[in-house]
Specification:
The chain is α+β, with helices and mostly antiparallel strands. It folds into 4 domains: 2-63, no CATH class; 70-142, Monooxygenase; 148-470, Methylamine Dehydrogenase, Chain H (7 Propeller), CATH 2.130.10.10; 471-513. It is built from 9 helices and 28 strands. Strands 1-28-27-26 form a 4-stranded antiparallel beta sheet, with no helix packed on it. A 4-stranded antiparallel beta sheet has the order 2-3-4-5, with no helix packed on it. Strands 6-7-8-9 form a 4-stranded antiparallel beta sheet, with no helix packed on it. A hairpin with a 4-residue loop joins strand 23 and strand 24 (403-407). Helix 7 runs parallel beside helix 8.
């Protein structure tokens, strides 16, 4: 680059000399203008401020078209450039000028930023008066809530251990089930029991729901389903009293159902019969059977793929064709019990019998899928039975009776649309400490789920706990205000003390000086009297 700049400078000087002689045609003007632009661009890159004399200055119309900024580009082109930035960079750009602020603040990419992290906002979060940038900033700020203070609601109702919990945040509902074969529905806000199903006849190890369908998987190999009842406040009639024919069962598995998940068009079920089955929600027919080499413990779908764990391995499948895209062998020492996935589908989190939690990145290159380990955490002393993810927090539940909260914000890809792997093979043994541990359980935790400001877990105790962080930021703001008031009062008392000490010091010095003068005066008087007496004696 240095050689190129020097060469361009020489060309520019030649151009100036040619301009003195006024021997240039219209074609040479065009060429010279291009050369001068290149020169200025080169000098600008090198940090050189080009000061040209009157002999070297080209015509005014030349330089009026040279000094351009990004704001001179068409707004559509600026918008495409901003599309390559991540949220932090886009926020910095919006502070540069009013033009960029207006373009960046209303940019469509804010919606993509929001949806790739948290999905479409619920009615409680969404407002027509707020822009997507405002929604993103607010939700990103609220994500810090899990570092604050919390309250705990303990829900009693199950008579035996709770094997599965599911948080339907959009409807503010919590679904739980376990060894007592009953599915229970709770109010997330109030912590009260809303309804419970009749006994299903066996242990229920998996529950999943959306606003249209609730499914529960039993150890007898069936999937029990409830359709949402239109107009019903709490969506589902678990008792079957409000409206008949809203319940049905799907039978095809030959072993206990261990995991369930839903998307808009499919039902996914995993079983100890070593298969994952994909069901069409409209026809209720099984469309794919994905066969594994061991018991299936967990699964998470995304778009046209589904990730699953079987034995100690992790699989990634293409659901339309049933093709195995990738497999990771011996992820954990022992069984790989738990699996979670980011909303973009690019990152997988696994938990296993060895107490470790691993993070993987799925990289797609020319129709080939590679899975690269990104980080490892060892937050527990026992097996990790469940994982849940809500950007940027990963929460794990273990049989040591603890929950671990891990912030993976720095590890996730910074911007969308990039398909270059961010991590190198050397990073595979990175061990990061957990951000926060939640205690208070005496025995096994089997399941956990997380929402915007709540964590729900259940275990061997037979109770359900809801960790409520909804007031964490407000409590922190009040605590900061009180700390500020206390600090201000402390500083005021200190200033008063200093002033009092200053006044006391001056008065003390004055009193000491007065006493000293008094003593000196007495001494002088005594000497004077003694002199007079001596003089009188001498005269006499």
């Amino acid at each position: 680059m240095e050689f190129e700049c020097q060469e361009s400078t020489l060309v520019f000087k030649d151009l100036a000399n040619c301009s003195e002689t006024n021997h240039f045609s219209s074609n040479s003007i065009t060429e010279d203008l291009e050369i001068s632009k290149l020169t200025l661009d080169c000098n600008r890159k090198k940090g050189i401020s080009s000061s040209c004399s009157s002999k070297q200055v080209a015509p005014d119309d030349v330089f009026s078209n040279v000094w351009r900024s990004i704001t001179d580009l068409p707004p559509a082109l600026i918008s495409e450039i901003l599309n390559c930035l991540d949220p932090k960079e886009l926020g910095v750009v919006s502070c540069v000028s009013t033009t960029l602020h207006s373009i960046a603040s209303e940019h469509r990419v804010w919606k993509e930023f929001y949806c790739e992290r948290w999905g479409l906002p619920t009615a409680a979060w969404f407002s027509d008066e707020k822009s997507w940038k405002e929604l993103f900033v607010e939700r990103d700020y609220r994500s810090k809530t899990f570092l604050g203070r919390y309250s705990i609601d303990v829900l009693y109702g199950h008579t035996e251990a709770v094997r599965t919990v599911f948080l339907l945040a959009s409807a503010k509902l919590v679904f739980t089930a376990g060894y007592d074969s009953v599915v229970r529905m709770w109010d997330m806000e109030e912590g009260l029991s809303i309804a419970s199903s009749r006994p299903l006849g066996c242990t229920v190890r998996a529950v999943a729901a959306d606003t249209k369908l609730l499914v529960a998987g039993g150890t007898d190999g069936f999937i029990h389903c409830w359709k949402a009842v239109e107009g019903l406040k709490y969506l589902f009639d678990l008792k079957g009293v409000e409206k008949p024919n809203t319940e049905f069962r799907l039978w095809e598995h030959d072993g206990p159902i261990t995991s369930l998940s839903l998307d808009l068009t499919r039902i996914y079920s995993g079983s100890w019969d070593m298969t994952v089955r994909v069901w069409n929600r409209s026809t209720l027919k099984c469309t794919q059977i994905l066969r594994h080499g061991d018991w299936v413990w967990s699964l998470v779908p995304h778009d046209t793929t589904v990730a699953s764990t079987a034995g100690s391995d992790v699989y990634v499948w293409e659901t339309n064709s049933g093709t195995l895209l990738s497999v990771i062998h011996n992820v954990h020492v022992g069984y790989t019990y738990a699996l979670a996935r980011s909303r973009t589908g690019d990152f997988l989190f696994t938990g296993g019998e060895d107490g470790a939690v691993h993070m993987f990145e799925i990289i797609t290159e020319s129709k080939e899928h590679r899975v690269v380990k990104v980080a490892t955490w060892i937050p527990h002393s026992g097996a990790v039975y469940a994982l849940a993810f809500e950007f940027p927090w990963l929460v794990s539940a273990s049989n040591d009776g603890k929950l671990a909260l891990i912030d993976v914000r720095k590890l996730l890809r910074a911007s969308i649309g990039k398909r270059v792997p961010r991590f190198k093979e050397s990073d595979q043994k990175t061990i990061e400490p957990p951000q926060r541990m939640l205690h208070g359980f005496g025995c096994n935790l089997f399941s956990v789920d997380i929402g915007a400001d709540r964590i729900v877990c259940g275990g061997e105790e037979g109770v359900v706990r809801i960790w409520n962080f909804s007031q964490a930021l407000e409590i922190e703001q009040r605590a900061r205000a009180l700390r500020g008031i206390r600090l201000e009062n402390r500083m005021r008392r200190r200033r008063l003390q200093i002033e009092m000490n200053g006044k006391g010091g001056r008065s003390g010095r004055c009193s000491v000086a007065a006493k000293k003068n008094l003593v000196d005066g007495d001494r002088n008087n005594s000497v004077w009297h003694s002199k007079r007496s001596i003089d009188s004696k001498v005269k006499t």
